[in-house]
Amino acid sequence: MPQSRPTEDRQPYRDPALPVEERVADLVSRMTLEEKLNQLVGMWIYVSGAEERVAPHQEDFADDTPPWDEMIENGLGQLTRVFGSAPIEPAKGAAALSRLQREITGSSRFGIPAVAHEECLAGFTAWGATAYPVPLSWGASFDPDLVREMAASIGADMRSVGVHQGLAPVLDVVRDLRWGRVEETIGEDPYLVGAVGSAYVTGLESSGIVATLKHFAGYSASRAGRNLAPVSMGPREFADVVLPPFEMALRLGGARSVMHSYTDVDGMPSAADEALLTDLLRGELGFTGTVVADYFGVSFLHKLHGVADGPGAAGAAALRAGVDVELPNARCYVEPLAHLVRSGEVGEALVDRALHRVLNQKVELGLLDPDWSPEAAQPRELDPARNRDLARRLAEESVVLVANDGTLPVREPGRVALVGPLADDPFALLGCYSFPAHIGVSYPDWPNGIELPTFRDEIARIATHVDHVKGCDLPEGGADFDAARAAAADADLCVAVVGDRAGLFGRGTSGEGCDAADLRLPGDQEELVEQLLETGTPVVLVVSSGRPYALARFADRVAAVVQVFFPGEAGAAALADVLTGEVNPSGRLPVSIPATPGGNPGTYLTAPLGAASEVSSLDPTALFPFGHGLSYTTFAYSDLVINAGEVATDGSVDISCSVINTGDRDGDEVVQLYLRDPVAQVARPVRQLTGFTRVSVPAGESRTVSFHLHADRTAYTGARGKRVVDPGVIEVHVGGDSAHARLSGEFRLVGEVREVGPDRVLDTPATVTP
Length: 770
What we know:
The protein contains 21 helices and 27 strands.
C-alpha cells in the first residue's frame, strides 16, 4: 500500500464527490514546477538493458535515462512498458508494476500513481498473452463486431495486471504498399479503417483501457514507402483520406488519447505542428484527452527534423504544439523545459494546460481516489481458451481465397508436398508487434509463452502424408530447389507457403523499418514458385505476409491463391480448415494485390487520371482489387432499390438489395456499397467505399441488405478548401469488390451547396433481414 497521507486524503483533489476539473485545479495550485513537469513524462526503466531496438534510435537515448530514485521524488506521469520490454510472467509483472507504483506514490509529495501503458496492436504485447491476427487481418475480416469483441478481451487482460493505457489502434490509411508498417494498418480505404478501428477503440475503452490513436497524421504516406520519410501531400488528400478514420474513432469510438506521427507533412513535423495538434485536433474535432509523443518523437525535433537546437527547444516546440506527455522517457520536458520556463522563454501556462489534461485522465481512471491501491490488479491467465477461440474465429474470417480453379477445397488430401521458407516457421504467423516477434526473438532461451502450431503442424493434421521441404531461406541465403521440385513432383498436391517474416528495423521483410524496394516476393521465393510450377503438380500458393505482393507472374498457373495477413497463433489451424472446406472462406482484401512489382504507390482510391489510360505505357490496374474474395459457394445480387430519386443535400436515402446464396453450402458474403460523384468541384475517386456489412446466407436462401445513407457521406473537400455536400448525380454501385458492380443505380442531390464539419454523419448503418 502507498504510505499513509491522512492530511492529503482530506484535500479537495482527493474527493471523488467533487467535479473532475475542481479536483484537478486544486491539485495544480499546490504543485511546484518540477512536480508539474514530472507528470508530463514517462519512464522506461528497461531501455538501457534492451538487446535489440524496439523504437527508432533507441540506442541513442538509452544513456539519457535519469536515475529512478531521483526521477520519482517529484512524481511521474507514465510508466513505459513494464510488460512489453522483456519476458516476464504475468503474476511477476503485476507484482513488479505494483512495487514501482508503491515507490512512486511513496516517494513523492502528493502520491500520484503513474499511468502504465503498453502496446496492444496484435494483442497485449506481453509474454504469455494471446497473439491475435494483425490489423490488416482485421480489415480482411470486414467484421467490426468481432474486432470489438477482441479488443474488449485484450483490454480486460491488460486491466487485470494493472495497465491503464494501450497504444493502439493504428489508423493510418495505406498509401504505399512498400511501407514496412502496412501490416499494422487496417487497409487502403478510409471508411474500412475508420469503421474497424472505431470498433477496436470501443472494445478497448469498454474495458477501462485508454485507447491511443496513432499515428496522427499522414505517416503512411511517407515518400517512397520509407519509414519516417517526409510526406508530400496536399490538404485535400489529408482531409478526405487521412483524417476520417481519426474523426470516426474519436466521435464513434470515444478514444481518450492520440499519439502524434513521426513524420513531417510538407516540411512540418507533426510533433511541432500547432495547427494539427491544437487548432485541428482540439479546436475543430473537439478532442479533450491527452496527446502523447511517439517514442523519442520530441527529441527527434532536434535530432532528426532540425527544427530545434537542443532538447529544451524541442520540448518547448512540442508543448506549444499540444503534445502533453513526452514518451518513453524524460529528456526534453523536465530539466531543459524547466530552465526555459524559469527564464521566461516558455510560459508556465503551457505546462499547466498539458498538466490539466493529464490529471483529468488520472482522475477519470480513479488514480487520485483515496481508496486507490496498486494491489488492486488481479492477474489472470493471458492466453485462456476463450482468447484462443476468439483469435481463431478472427483468423478464419480473415483468410482470403483470392483465386481457385476448383482444386479447393481438398476434401481428403493425399500426399502433400509442403514447401516454402514459412511452412514450418511459427513466426510466419506473427506481426512485428506480437510479443514473440517483437521482444521474444531477443531472448532465445525463453519459450514463446504460447502455443504456436505452424502451417506444417496443421497441414499434417488434415493430410495423410506430408513431405516438407523448405526450398529456400528468407530473406535470403541457401536454396534447395532440387529437393523442392522432387517433393512436388512426387505429390498429389503442392502447398507453397511464401511471404514475409516480420521484424523491426531491418530484421525482417515486413514490419516497422522493414520497407520494400518493390513488391516482388522477398528473396528467392518467386524462383521457388516457378520451380514448383514446372513439375505439373497442382500448386496452392499460400501468401502469409504483412503486405500484398505482385502475383501476375504466376497467378494464372497456380491452382489457387490464398492470402493471409499474419493471422496470429490460431492462423495455421484456420488456414488448414479453409483448405479442406471445414471453414468456408469469407475474407476480403483490405488492400489491392498488384499485378506488377513496380509502379507504386497506388491504391484503388484514385481519380480517373490514376487509372489505366492510352497516354501512359504503365497500367496500374490491380490484379485483384480491394474488397475481392472468393467463397466455396456463389452469391447473386438482385432487386436494387433506391427509395428516392432526389435527396436534399441535408437528407438521406435508403439503398437495398437482395443477396442470394446460389450454391450448395452456407456462406458469408461481404456486401459493399460504393459511390461515385461523376461531376464535382474537384477530381473525385472513380469509386469509393461508403458502406459494408457481412451477411451470413444459408444455401439456397436470400437476405435483404439495406444501407441508410445520409447526404453527409457524399461530402468532400471542395475547390475552396471547405468540406461540402453539393447537388448533382451520385452513382450507386453495390457488389463484392471495388472493381465489379453487381448492381448500379443513381440518385440526385438537390438544394444548395452545404458546408459540413466534424459533426457530420460519419457512418452508413446497414441492416440485414430475411
